[in-house]
Amino acid sequence: MISLRNIWVVAERDLRTFVNYKFMLIMRAIWFLAQIALFGLIVNKMFKPDVELAIGTSYFNFYAAGIIITLLYSTTVFIGYDIYEEADHGVIEYLLSLPVSRKELVLGRSIGGGLRSFIYVSPMLLFVLYLIGVTNLLQFLVAFISLFLFAFGVAGFSITLAVSIKSSDKFDILLGVVDALIVRLSTTLYPLVYMPNYYQAFARFNPLTFAADLFRWGAGIESTVLTNPAVAVFGIILFFSIFTFLGIILHERRLEGGGWQ
Amino acid sequence: MKAVLHILERDFRYFFRYKWWIVGMLSMSLADLFIMAVVYTRMVNPELFIENYFLFFSPGIMITALFAAAFMIGREINAEIRREISHYMLSLPIKRWKLALGRVLAGGLRGMIYTIPLLLTTLFVTFVLAGNVPSPLQMLIIILALFLISVGTSGLSITLALSTTSFEKYVTARGVIYYLLFFCSTVFYPLNLIQSVMPQFFAIIAQYNPLSCGADLARSFLLGYPPLEPVMILDLVIFALIFASLAMFAYMKIIQK
């Protein structure tokens, strides 16, 4: 039997430890501002007029919405680094000794990992929404809830990788490579129609594509180049379910027994 | 000179400890070029600014990678000051100025080593797509420009690292400088576009930004545009001289505190 209270206690702990990463949080905020205020504004004027027609808004708005999803992704994956920190300092053994089941532990961590990123990203998300303007509240609520699931899914993904690999060096490089590919092979930075076919094949099924296009749809950007919202919601639910399930299984099997490098 | 070589060797050993970081950064740079630039090439308005964005961006990514790698030394030096490893450094039978020179040069040379794969990629790309092969003299000037950027960046990063013992403050200042120089440069877009979109203050930064000068200098040899101007080389020489000297001076002062 899973106790919601136990899950919340684990999640709350992760929320509190997030403050320790204040330098990372500051860096990400500066990165976001630079991306929007410098890169986004300049690149907005660099493209053909048909880009704006295709995406149904200015490229700046399209890009700002995508950057929020990138930020949400990159702050959420940090939960994996937390696990290595804990392994380094012997905190994993302490966590295992708590009267909390393994399932509650991993669910709490996924929720905590996702929630803390969401709280961090919220002011910037509101700023982007202010820039774009929300036209349909119901659409926005659907997108907002889906983004929560997306963040929990990313946390589950990061936990799954961390406990599968058990080597901080390998995790670091793998996450770096995944980050390089998953962001660029998605619609966070550009619409699917402008990608060559061989990139489209990956981008079409990328959870970041689902999240970015859904967020744009929620903010009221109307365009045929965006992923169908129903498909995007389904994709995010699938992503969340797979990685939460995998996270639970692997967490239960691999967390004990040491072997952390 | 032997003492400086010892310092260089030490810093190179440290650099290769970050091999995973290096591989991660390289993959990001290559993904920027082979994914982002490929897609942007299909979106960029060729009538306005650039005909082939992929070609345009190729020398730019080499410069950003060089900058990021040369900047790493600052983080190490900031950590050494906080952990008082500088006391150990002072105990070495090496003159202070040689120690400082070694650190600045090491930072610069590490950046150069890291950039080699990206330089080769850029040369390959410009040869295949534009049919341009730089002459030996042009190649030498490109390498010299990369070295100047690298040493200047290493100096800038060391100066910054020594200006505060707080890691948070260092990281924040680094973030501001890092992204300002990255995005306010001609690495991603041409100068005339920046001038037409951004306020004059940012346009001036972009024009005299060493990253812009380095990227445009490489483009002038590898792509044939923009035209090479002596101010580009002068800018890089001044940048390297100022920040290498500042870093050496600051390093000699701070480790004696």
Name the descriptors.
heterodimer, A: 261 residues, mainly alpha, 0% strand, B: mainly alpha, 11 helices, 82% helix
Structural class of chain A: mainly alpha
Pick out the low-confidence regions of chain B. none
Number of strands of chain B: 0
Main beta sheet of chain A: strand number and arrangement?
none
- In sequence order, what are the helices and strands of chain B, one letter per element? HHHHHHHHHHH
Broad structural category of chain B: mainly alpha
Separate helix tally of chain A: 12
Oligomer classification: heterodimer
Count of structural domains of chain B: 1
Alpha-carbon distance between the termini of chain A? Answer: 33 Å
* Average pLDDT of chain B: 88
Summarize model confidence as the mean pLDDT of chain A.
87
Shape of chain B: globular
What's the total number of strands of chain A? 0
Topology:
The complex is a heterodimer of chains A (261) and B (257).
Chain A: H1 4-18, H2 22-44, H3 49-55, H4 59-76, H5 78-88, H6 91-96, H7 102-132, H8 137-165, H9 168-184, H10 197-203, H11 207-218, H12 229-254
Chain B: H1 2-17, H2 19-43, H3 53-82, H4 85-91, H5 96-130, H6 136-162, H7 167-183, H8 191-197, H9 200-208, H10 210-222, H11 230-254
Helix pairs in contact in B: 1-5, 2-3, 3-5, 3-6, 3-7, 3-10, 5-6, 5-11, 6-10, 6-11, 10-11
What does this entry look like structurally?
The complex is a heterodimer of chains A (261) and B (257). By secondary structure, chain A is mostly helical. Chain A has one domain (21-254). Chain A has 12 helices and no strands. Chain B has 257 residues and is mostly helical. Chain B is 82% helix and 0% strand. Chain B contains 11 helices and no strands. Chain A binds chain B through residues 22-23, 26-27, 30-31, 33-35, 38-39, 41-49, 51, 169-170, 172-173, 175-177, 179-181, 184-185, 189-190, 194-196, 199, and chain B through 20-21, 23-25, 27-28, 30-32, 35-36, 38-40, 42-45, 48-49, 167-168, 171-172, 175-176, 179-180, 182-184, 188-189, 193-194, 196-198, 202.
